[in-house]
Amino acid sequence: MTNVFSRTVPRMERTFALRALNQHETEINRHYWSFKVISDYAGYLARQKVSSDKTFRTATLFHATGPDAVRIPTTAGDWLDARDDLENWLRISSLVSATSYLETYLRQVVRSALMSAPMARHGIASAVDGTQLLKIGKEIPYDEDIRRVTVGDWSSRAEGFRSLFGTIPAAIAANLKRLEAIRRLRNMYAHGFGRDSEIIPEPSAMTPGTMARLHANRFLNDIGIISKVAASVDELLLRQFIGNFELVHFYHLWRAKPRVGKEATYSEARALARSLNKEANCTANALFCAGLISFYHAA
After folding, report:
1. Contact 28, 97 (CB under 8 A)
2. For residue 205, what are the CA distances in angstroms to 67, 196, 221?
3. What is the pLDDT averaged over residues 41-47?
4. Quick check: 165 and 241 in contact, CB under 8 A?
5. Closest among 240, 295, 273 to 109, alpha carbons compared
6. Stretch 33-58: mean pLDDT, rounded?
7. SS3 for 88?
8. C-alpha to C-alpha distance for 146 and 198, rounded to whole angstroms
9. What is the pLDDT of residue 201?
10. Count of Cβ atoms closer than 10 Å to residue 38 Cβ
């Protein structure tokens, strides 16, 4: 990795936005699989009992005591049914959480790209360097542009990318059908408690309808698609539109903060390098930072 600053060649392999999304993916993974290992073990114990006694009491099986023991499904067989429903519910919940954070990621990374190359939306990305606008505190409104890639069906979102950046990220183009199915499932979960929210119940209906099912293999595949979409978007926008703008933006905010204590004795380039390493987890030395600072002031 070169130590010479380049506005267009990114120092980092991922945007700050993708780093945040990856942390969220780790969080989902920890939560889901922490539950799954316990659920599978408890399910194994319950199936053993059910095979010989379908009415074996759940509270006895799991040594449940106290006032809440009466809330548990009465028999081990009933508990197994409830467990299957809960696992389905948690898979859908996890997928909804992942899709929500994908949209958070898209809002941040598209904003970064449009701040970096404000004329990209007009097909002339290199016409104006966003650093110039950053320095004078101006930002072209982006709300409607971001809506193009985060609202509506995925076919329209894909076209939103094309209109803003001239192309559709590869993973979006390759998974349009499944992304749309995920979007619909998310809406069913968020607006219809896991049921199809577009179906209006009859006046005398007393049952909530059948909950959507998301099987384990499909869940893992869908989570993988979301991850691939984010990585594909990041590759496109980071390499072609953002470059090192995030680090320029970091410096723009950093330079306005007072340096105290030992930090005040360092050169600006060395102090910036220390801050990038510590606060942004970005490996950069004083030579690189000196180039960044020079670029900022010359822009």
Report:
1. yes
2. 34, 15, 35
3. 97
4. yes
5. 240
6. 95
7. helix
8. 26
9. 67
10. 10
Task: Select from 86, 78, 110 the least CA-distant residue to 35.
Answer: 86
**Which range, of 127-136, 137-146, 190-199, averages the lowest pLDDT?**
190-199
Query: Which tokens in the block code for residue 91?
Result: 């898979």
* Residue 145 in tokens: 């542009």
Q: What share of the chain is helix, strand, coil (3-state, %, to 5)?
A: 70, 0, 30
Q: How far apart are CA 156 and CA 161, in angstroms?
A: 9
Residues 214-243: tens digit of each pLDDT = 999 999 999 999 999 999 999 999 999 999
Please enumerate, as own/partner, the contacts of 218-223 that have beta carbons within 8 Å and a separation of 24 or more. 219/91, 219/94, 219/95, 221/178, 222/95, 222/98, 222/178, 222/182, 223/25, 223/28, 223/94, 223/95, 223/98
- The encoded tokens of residue 285 equal 């030395």
pLDDT tens for residues 88-115? 999 999 999 999 999 999 999 999 999 9
Q: 251 has which bridge partners? A: none
- 8-state DSSP, 198: T
Buried b / exposed e along 7-37 (16+ C-beta atoms within 10 A): beebbbebbbbbebbbebbeebeeebeeeee
Question: What is the residue type of 70?
Answer: V
Distance CA 291, CA 131 (A): 14
Q: What is the mean pLDDT of the chain?
A: 93
Eight-state DSSP code of residue 197: T
- Rounded Cα distance between 73 and 79, Å, is 5
Mean pLDDT of 163-189: 94
